[in-house]
Every structure is written in C-alpha cells, then in structure tokens.
Amino acid sequence: MEEEVDLATAVAVEVAKQIPVKDAYDDAVKPGAQQVGNIVEDITKTVLLALAPIQYPAALQDRFRNFLDKSVRRVPEDNRLPPPPQVLGPVLEGIRYEPEDSPISEMFSQLLSSSIDQTRVHNAHPAFAQIVRQLSADEATLLSAMWTLWKQERRSFRQWFTQDYERSSNTFSNIKMELDEIPRANLMFPENVEFYGQHLYALGITAFFDSAQQEPLYDENQIQNGIRLFKELRFTDVGHKFMEAVSL
Q1: Is 133 in contact with 127 (CB distance < 8 Å)?
Q2: Pick from 36, 123, 186, 225: most CB atoms within 10 A?
Q3: Interval 66-81: pLDDT, tens
Q4: Are 140 and 186 a contacting pair, CB within 8 Å?
Q5: How far is CA 16 from the centre of its chain?
C-alpha cells in the first residue's frame, strides 16, 4: 500500500506541472478551446505514463482519463491552478476503488476541481481526501441531502421525540419519534441511519444539536412522566468547509 501511495504522489507532482497558471502568459497567446483540450489530454497522458510500470488494466486507465477530463474541464481556464500533490495523490488513489459516477467519486471529482480552482482552493484542505475515502455511499447521499437543504432553506434536518421518565430511578427510556426529517428513501441501508450519524460525528462533519429547550411532560396529577426533545442534524464548522470543497 505504501508503494501505491508514493506512486499516486509522484503522479500528482507530474500532473501539477502540466496545468497552466493563470496570467502565466499574455492574453494574446492564451490557448484557444482546441488547445485547452490538448492541455487536458497532456495531463491525462502524464498520469497514464506514470502508471505504466504498474500495468493497470485498460479499464482503469480509462477511468483515470475520464475522471481527470471531467474534473479539469469543470474549472474555467482562467481560474486553473496547479493542484497540490497532497490533494491530487490521495484523490487518484481513492477513485481506483469507486465506480464511476458514484456519490463518492463525485465528491473526489469536486475536491480535485476545488484544488485547482483559484476561487475554491481555500476550501480544499488536504485532509478532505481521506475523509471522503472513509465515507459510505449512503453517507455521501445523506450529506448531499443535508447540503441541499442547507443551501436552499438555511436549515437542518429536524427530529422531535419524547421519552418516558421513571421518577424512582431518575432515568429516561422508550423513545417515541414525533418528527423525523432525516431522509431514508434513497439510502441502500436506511436501517443504518443511527450508525451513519455516529460515524459522521466521529469524522467531525456533523452532530446533533438541541434546536429548542426540552419540554417536561406531565400526567393528569401534574407529575412529570416524560420529556420532549428537539434536535437537528447539523454540519459542524469543519463539515461546512468540507461540503464547500466536495460539492457544487
């Protein structure tokens, strides 16, 4: 594995040399659309030549070619910067294990685009490639849904639920959900939502926050027998920066 990571870094260094820096030459001699296409081809050829000693299958070489083409062309020519090897290397290594057009692959592609776009490069932290590699497809789908809701409505997914209160032992039990906005319909394993929440929290991306003060519940004798809680699944500060880097 160490040799593979070193190879990815070596490839990243060579690819970085192929991408022109904005204002490195006068407007009058900047390449036209056809030449820009050639630049993308040069980058791809560099990667494939560097990978040649490993003799990757043709399908994997096509995978690299398509991925680079998509990621580089997404960035306007005037905004392109050389990609930092510490981002590009892990990204190239990561996509080897992901199907094309999967949610994880799309995150890798957006992260690479961010790292070579002068308007987005401030979001492309080197640690983000490793975070993407630790996500499942379901978690990527859930994060995408959370991000869409945040950008459209500036709010997070809510959960409201009650718990019974046992006065003698001073304990709470028996969760009863009253509102649950966390989307499960597009997940392959919706029963894993609680685990996904714990994993994303461990990665420092999301966390459940209290969205309102909890309410005590009482029986007919005005003795507390429960509690109502209001939660939201929100992005942390790191999570916001991460999603800026791996999303449109």
Answers
A1: no
A2: 123
A3: 888 889 889 988 888 8
A4: no
A5: 22
